[in-house]
Amino acid sequence: MNSARSVLCAVAAALSVASLVGCAGDDATTNTADGCVAPGVTADEVKVGMLYPDSGGLASSFSAARAGIDARFGLANASGGVHGRQISYVWRDDQANPSTNLTMSRQLVEREGVFAVLETSTATSGGAPYLAEAGVPVVGLAVEEAWSRYRNMFSFSYLFTDGGSVDTFGRFVREHGGTRAVIVRDYAGGSTSVQFADQLIVSLRAAGVEIPAEQVTEYQPGRASASRIAEWMLNNGVDTLVAAMDTETLAQLVDAAGEAEVPLKVILTGREVSAELLETYGARLGGVTSYANYLPFQVSSPALGAYRAAVARYAPQLVDPDQTLALTAYVVADMLVRGLEEAGECPSRQSFMDGLRAVEDYDAGGLITRTDFGEDFGRLRECYAFVRVNAEGTGIEVVDPDFCGSRL
């Protein structure tokens, strides 16, 4: 992707499965008073690392991620830590650059001697091979192909995979009246955008949704492209628009479709519609439906209440906790906590990875749909939460918090 806007559509992280052999400094492996020997582990502490863009064009977008990490680790430490050990972390700025990500991964492992790495970045593919060979567990947000390549990489959801598709999206479209769809992707989306568009085609057709011969349409920035696509939809009887692009671009296309009076019954996207877009477009975005694998903020839930309380207490710098990156980073940190719990009282990197991979019912305390870290590795989720912009364009309403299909 060749712009900050496009890059923001792909948030990734890298994990590793082997044991560290000759990659860290002499003091990286700690022999604790209780006999435990592992990098970053002492009798009363586990030190981990974090990589994210703290500078550059994506810095402001990812700033909320650290608040999510602070909140979950703060909650764990206030409860006595994990097996009596407090969790601490050091962070590095990878500038959303793969080369920098690799450099900073090496620093965390070889200089800081961290036990594991959390990544909320778009450039984790840079350090992923190194971390895999070094045997350093990494947890994070998976939207790069590396996540489905290394068994040591842990995420609660995969956006781009080689593990086939699901009929969930097609079922949803059919249940809401869609019969003939067009898939539009951002021309700058790169190979990942193409791959996901292909998975959407399989999902829609499996549910009986017709797709015209021109399977995927590329959107070029500008009003002319939006008008051209809208006219094509009108002339080809399209009633469903499925977007593999960011919501700002989608808003321009939806606006053009409205002006052309395209009778759209379903407008589906995997991106969140922001308050800024609602303020700009209002009712013209009415009906735009988003899907995600975490609990919608609009749902009244004890899990979300606990999350907000943790942010208020341990990350007060985040004024508004209802931010996607904050919530998903909180879940990433929770995965780290769960891995330490599964690793036992004398954790090693390998026991962390073996233990977490064996968890079959992970839901981050109710914040996400159930995940089996073994069975679900590298595969699209079967269940998603669907929300949509209300008719007035003033807010978001929940369509279904747990809509499920089947794997194909």
From TrEMBL:
Record bears the keyword Repeat: no
Q: Which domain of life is it from?
A: Bacteria
| Signal peptide feature range | 1-24
Please tell me whether the keyword Cytoplasm is annotated for this protein. no
Q: Name one Pfam family in it.
A: Peripla_BP_6
Gene3D superfamilies of this UniProt entry? 3.40.50.2300
Q: Which CDD domains match?
A: PBP1_ABC_ligand_binding-like
Q: Which UniProt keywords apply?
A: Signal
Q: Which InterPro entries match?
A: Leu-bd (IPR028081), Peripla_BP_I (IPR028082)
Q: Where is the Leucine-binding protein domain?
A: 45-393
Family membership, please give it.
Belongs to the leucine-binding protein family.
Q: What name does this protein carry?
A: ABC transporter substrate-binding protein
